Amino acid sequence: MKTFSFTGAKKIVFGRGSFAALPEQLAEQKVVRPLVVLDRNLAETGFREKVSALLDQAGMKYALYDKTEPEPPLELADEGTKIALKNKCDGVVGIGGGSAMDLAKAIAVLAANKAKAEEFLGLNRVPGPGLPKIMIPTTAGTGSEVTFTSVFIRKKLKKKEGMNSPYLYPELALLDPELTLSLPPHPTAATGIDALCHAIESYTSINASPMSEMISLEAIQLISDNLRTAVHDGANIEAREAMLLGSLYAGLGLANAGVTAVHSLSYPLGGRYGVSHGLANTIMLPRVMAFNLPGALEKFVDIAEVMGEIVDDLPLREAAFLAVEAVEALIEDCGIMTTLEELEIPESDFPEMAKAAMTVARPLANNPCKMTIEDMVEIYQECYS
Questions:
Q1: What are the structural domain ranges in the chain?
Q2: Residue-by-residue DSSP string for 180-248
Q3: Which helix (H) or strand (E) holds 36?
Q4: DSSP-derived secondary structure letter, 10
């Protein structure tokens, strides 16, 4: 067995109603004047007032930044940093989906290091620790509450880029399943498949370890068993709880084993056409799984089995392919099966998209099968109709 390490958020608190303990958790982190980064749509549903009431009751001073949007542009990180510095904030709380949490993590390191967001794009370019970070997900999807990555859109370049640094790991991940109850069916489905994607990619990554494999496989089972219920019966707290736990596990798997070619192929969809990250991964996942079968047959059999498929007495490749069929059935049952044609992405763009995807190198390096530009164009073509 090769040497491996395992990292994530420094502390994880999980449970129904745990959001109410935010003031106590801030005090534990010695934060007295936090910047609260809030998803814009979430703020407009009354959550801004809910956060304010909680912190006001605790007598805390704080600043609110609620301009987070899906697939956030890099400029928001600099704008939020200015607000943090102006208000002399000594910690950052991110509340929402992956975009809000990614933005909050970036602001924390930018404010502490007095830097511009563009300076920290890439791997290990953050020179020092950030302000204390508390991440509170309201979707069961990205796992950003336990990862070392913040992803942004470079609008002028029409591409996605990320900050990747151990300094982005949150000090605390605070997960309250009750905060996910109001999420509508479509984003529940898209974020849920995004979490499944993280779990499958990290499980099949060539950098997976025994510990990450254990967590990723458990994530696959939790999501497979509960996503349909969460989508079609959103008030079911048991399903929401299981989905949030599955998303957390998938995030830990992602943070330690990495993702694979699904993410490389999905980045141009977000960067060029504004397709949401969860939906882009949903489109790419089954086709990339089929491509990767030869490189991880036994692992795909494991995936098929935990997703409820009967694999006994089947030839290895046939059993492995059941994993692809199980994922396709889950996507269809959740009502988010779509194609690149339906998203009005022209076939003529596929070669340029493939070139852009090839630059997303770290996920490709983790992929169990080597992928060429020609392979990518073919996969985009398979996802067209």
A1: 12-180, 185-382
A2: GTT--HHHHHHHHHHHHHHHHHHHHSTT--HHHHHHHHHHHHHHHHHHHHHHH-TT-HHHHHHHHHHHH
A3: strand 34-39
A4: S
What would the pLDDT profile of 100-157 be if each residue is shown by its tens digit? 999 999 999 999 999 999 999 999 999 999 999 999 999 999 999 999 999 999 988 8
* The pairing of beta strand 63-68 with beta strand 12-14: unpaired
Of the candidates 284, 156, 260, 155, the residue with the CA atom closest to the CA atom of residue 204: 260
CATH fold of 12-180 reads Rossmann fold (3.40.50)
> What are the E-state strand segments in 311-378?
none
Looking at this protein, which amino acid is placed at residue 164?
Answer: N
What are 93's two structure tokens?
């709380």
pLDDT at 2 over 90: no
Q: Which helix (H) or strand (E) holds 37?
A: strand 34-39
- First vs last Cα of the chain: how many Å apart? 43
Residue by residue, DSSP assigns 131-155 as: S-EEEEESSSS--GGG-SEEEEEET
Name the pTM for this structure.
0.96
Interval 161-179: pLDDT, tens: 999 999 999 999 999 999 9
- Strand ordering across the sheet containing 12-14: 12-14, 172-175, 133-137, 91-96, 34-39, 63-68
Using CA atoms, how far apart are residues 242 and 240, in angstroms rounded to an integer? 5
Q: Tokens 């489905």 correspond to what residue? A: 189
HSE-CB of 302 using CA atoms within 13 angstroms: 15
CA triple 282-285-289, angle to 5 deg: 165
For 296-311, how does the pLDDT look when each residue is reduced to its tens digit (9 = 90+)?
Answer: 999 999 999 999 999 9
Q: Are 80 and 102 in contact (CB under 8 A)?
A: no
How is domain 185-382 classified at the architecture level of CATH? Up-down Bundle (1.20)
How far is it, in rounded angstroms, from Cα 316 to Cα 267?
32
Phi, psi dihedrals of residue 54, rounded to the nearest 5°: -65, -45
